[in-house]
Design brief:
63% of the residues lie in helices and 7% in strands. By secondary structure, the protein is an alpha/beta fold. A hairpin with a 2-residue loop joins strand 1 and strand 2 (22-23). Pfam families: ABC_membrane, ABC_tran, MTABC_N.
Length: 837
């Protein structure tokens, strides 16, 4: 049984921090538990008071079940048991039990017990006004300092007062307990960053969403852009983001690019070695000159040093030969990444449903794509060529300082590195909300600009130029306000980093100068230390924590685009549509865009092969919806749609749409030539086939009157053409496709009477022996009718009334045309004389 004789061990004092080549155990095991208990007690107490006063008990359904949370509790309990066991074991086996060992065990037990209590409070209660996610700063700081303290023990690796040598059973047990503490505290810190036992979203937001879901579970789908919480950590979902990045990091299918990647990584290793040898050879030059070595020896050393500097470069390896060569070779890999990202995202956007595209903001989406693709390139470069090299430089510097100088230099580097990285991450997390808001305002400004330019004619119609310019300027001002906050917080971060680096450099330089003046080091050692300090400083400055976080922020909108799911998907093992005759069947079809407002209710009808069916009804009655369902822009919510007896939801969309041609009511053309717009119906069509389709659509003669003919540019969305011309181009495009089933959604709504008659004649030829569904509008009415044309005329009612009005309009148009021709012929004759005039 040990007896408590003194606070510190023999030949030791708490005032002596450095003893026998390491940190004094008395000083270390007094300082660490005191700091941890102070943080746990004071910050934890404030934390608990806030949670009790301003928090609310969370409903069990919102608390996630997590095995990692159970692991957090288990690790904390294990550490508690370890501290108790270590104290009891040492008291039972050691001849002398120093007072600091009792303080270390007791304070550590209290600190970790308080941390467990904080963990359970956060699990059960939530702050009402808290919009952040994850553990509190008190817990994260506690775990971070506990893990850092265990790492600090490495500084005393060569000290005989510590247990690294495993000289006896007592040292072996203490080393085993340290391993347990190291692993447990490290796991707690890294698991704590993910906060597995807490809701993934702010608690009040979850409650509000739950209430909205209960009140109305069927809201119209909107594109999920900019729904990221303002204070959400960019490291949230880090594993998922990395999984998305991995395919772009390794260029599959290209052995040449893969070899380039490996070669660039090899050059990265060469750079690390060069960074070590540059200060060493500089020190050798000083030694050679001091020792008055021969000219040949000095010249050789100088040449090797200059060669290494040439390979390294002048600043942070950015302008050295090796770095430039690596950057040059990496261009191909970067281009591959950029191409793959954009192509995959573009293909994904085209796979999304019509519902999503109707609600999107084009400027928003385009800006998100631009920022996202550029940020992926930047992020991959940062991860491969900045993070790993920086960590390697730091580790090499610490090892070299401890080995060549002493542990004090290693301690300075370690403390400087820890403070630098910790404060960089904390401040960068704090300024995340400014960067997100800046991106949001940037998207808003670009959206307003794109929307205004696309609606140029409307702006002119209402003399709204000043209004649009004012709106755009207001959006720019909001963006600049957010940009100022982002830049100001960046300046604060840079100043903090400079302060830490300057303090570490000052401490290292003063210590090195002291040892030189005391005769413990040579003057060349100061040169070596200065060179390593400079290289370490550059490594820390180049650590891309801020850039990585900015890249993650810039990628968030793009990741959300990738997360958008296809509403209409091909069924598993879906086959091609086997077209036979073209029989269309709607059987008890139900559909609604919004829950509670059915557009189609128990709709059933059949279109026989080669038959033409007109869908007549008021606006909003679901006529165009039937066209969209048949084309599978949406899937029915009840019933079934069949073509030749095959359920269209069970066949591939591509094969279905290959047999269907659509002439929409609102025609939008690509900003390309008329020829290419018509050829879009069948890309492989020849120029002659394109012109034949234009003749059938009654637009060929009009095209030939244009100066550039078929090579005429139609402008953005076809604005250079009239409404009738655009619609006839769309009809020609469908004619060129030569589909077996034709869907006409008010195909002649934008045409004059004569052109409409010509187009109807052309469409009649095209629709011959083809199943056709035609959409037409009528005045509002409460009922619906479904019969043959002659039967509906005899019955009277809506259809007969509409037909009569249509005939009257056509007769009126014919009379107007005849009168116009008569007037024209009269104008050509000499005026008659009359006595009455």
């Amino acid at each position: 049984m040990a007896f408590l004789q003194s606070y510190c061990e023999s030949n030791s004092s708490i005032s002596r921090t450095w003893l026998d080549g390491g940190i004094s155990p008395c000083f270390y095991f007094t300082l660490v538990p005191t700091i941890l208990l102070t943080i746990a007690f004071f910050l934890g107490t404030v934390h608990c008071i806030f949670y009790q006063k301003y928090g609310t008990a969370m409903e069990p359904k919102f608390i996630p079940r997590s095995r990692l949370y159970g692991l957090q509790l288990a690790l904390s309990a294990l550490l508690l048991v370890q501290f108790v066991f270590g104290l009891v074991w040492r008291a039972a086996t050691a001849a002398e039990l120093p007072g600091y060992a009792v303080l270390y065990g007791g304070f550590s037990v209290l600190a970790w017990a308080w941390a467990v209590a904080l963990l359970r409070v956060e699990r059960r209660r939530a702050l009402v006004m808290d919009r952040t996610r994850g553990h509190s700063a008190a817990l994260l700081l506690f775990w971070a300092l506990a893990f850092s303290a265990e790492n600090l023990a490495f500084v005393s690796w060569y000290s005989p007062r510590w247990w690294w040598g495993l000289e006896d059973e007592q040292h072996q047990v203490q080393f085993a307990l340290w391993l347990l503490r190291y692993a447990a505290s490290g796991l707690l810190f890294f698991i704590g960053l993910r906060a597995p036992g807490l809701p993934r979203r702010p608690y009040m937001l979850l409650i509000n969403e739950d209430e909205r879901d209960v009140e109305n579970s069927g809201q119209v789908h909107e594109p999920r852009l900019h729904f990221t919480e303002e204070n959400q950590s960019t490291w949230q979902g880090f594993t998922k983001k990395v999984r998305l990045l991995v395919p772009y990091m390794w260029p599959r299918g290209s052995v040449f690019l893969q070899m380039l990647v490996l070669f660039c990584l090899g050059l990265l290793g060469v750079e690390r070695a060069i960074n070590v040898f540059v200060p060493i050879y500089y020190k050798n030059i000083v030694n050679d000159l001091t020792d008055r070595k021969s000219w040949r020896t000095v010249a050789t050393t100088v040449c090797v040093y200059v060669l290494l500097k040439f390979l390294q470069g002048g600043g942070a390896g950015a302008s050295g030969f090796v770095s430039n060569l690596r950057s040059f070779l990496w261009i191909r890999v970067q281009q591959f990444t950029n191409r793959v990202v954009q192509v995959r995202l573009f293909a994904h956007l085209h796979s999304l449903s019509l519902r999503w595209h109707l609600g999107r903001k084009t400027g928003d989406v385009l800006r998100s794509i631009d920022r996202g693709t550029s940020s992926i390139n930047s992020l991959l470069s940062y991860i491969v060529f900045s993070i790993f090299p920086t960590i390697a430089d730091i580790v090499i510097s610490i090892i070299y300082f401890i080995t060549y100088f002493n542990a004090w230099f290693g301690l300075i580097v370690f403390v400087c590195m820890t403070l630098y990285l910790t404060l960089t991450i904390i401040i960068t997390e704090w300024r995340t909300k400014y960067r997100r808001d800046m991106n949001l305002q940037d998207n808003n400004a670009k959206s307003k600009a794109v929307d205004s330019l696309l609606n140029f004619e409307t702006v002119k119609y209402y003399n709204a130029e000043s209004y649009e310019v004012g709106r755009f300027e207001g959006a720019i001002l909001k963006y600049q306000a957010s940009e100022w906050k982002t830049q100001a917080s960046l300046a604060f971060l840079n100043q903090t980093q400079n302060l830490i680096i300057g303090s570490g450099l000052l401490a290292g330089s003063l210590l090195c100068a002291y040892f030189v003046t005391e005769g413990k080091f040579q003057g060349s050692a100061a040169v070596l230390g200065g060179g390593l300090n400079s290289r370490l400083t550059l490594a820390l400055i180049c650590f891309p924590g801020r850039m990585i976080q900015n890249s993650f922020i810039d990628m968030e909108s793009m990741f959300q685009l990738f997360e958008e799911e296809e509403e209409v998907k091909d069924a598993v093992n879906a086959g091609n549509l086997l077209y036979q005759l073209g029989k269309i069947e709607f059987e008890n079809v139900y559909f609604s865009y919004v829950d509670g407002k059915e557009i189609l209710k128990d709709v059933s009808f059949t279109v026989l092969p080669g038959q033409t069916v007109a869908l007549v009804g008021q606006s909003g009655s679901g006529k165009s919806t039937i066209i969209r369902l048949l084309f599978r822009f949406y899937d029915v919510q009840g019933g079934c749609i069949r073509i030749d007896g095959q359920d269209i939801s069970k066949v591939k969309q591509v094969s279905l749409r290959a047999h269907i041609g659509v002439v929409p009511q609102d025609t939008v053309l690509f900003n390309d030539t008329i020829r290419d717009n018509i050829r879009y119906g069948r890309i492989s069509a020849s120029d002659r086939e394109v012109e034949e389709a234009a003749v059938a659509a009654d637009i060929h003669d009009k095209i030939t009157t244009f100066p550039e003919g078929y090579d005429t540019q139609v402008g953005e969305r076809g604005l250079k053409l009239s409404g009738g011309e655009k619609q006839r181009v769309a009809i020609a495009r469908t004619i060129l496709k030569a589909p077996q089933i034709i869907l006409l959604d008010e195909a002649t709504s934008a045409l004059d009477t004569q052109t409409e008659r010509n187009i109807q004649a052309s469409l009649a030829k095209v629709c011959t022996n083809r199943t056709t569904v035609v959409v037409a509008h009528s005045r509002p009415d409460s009922g619906g009718e479904r019969r043959a044309h002659e039967e509906l005329l005899l019955k009277g009612g809506l259809y007969a009334d509409m037909w009569l009005k249509q005939q009257q309009v056509q007769d009126s148009d014919s009379s107007s045309d005849t009168e116009t021709k008569d007037r024209k012929s009269e104008k050509l004759q000499p005026p008659a004389t009359s006595a009455g005039h």
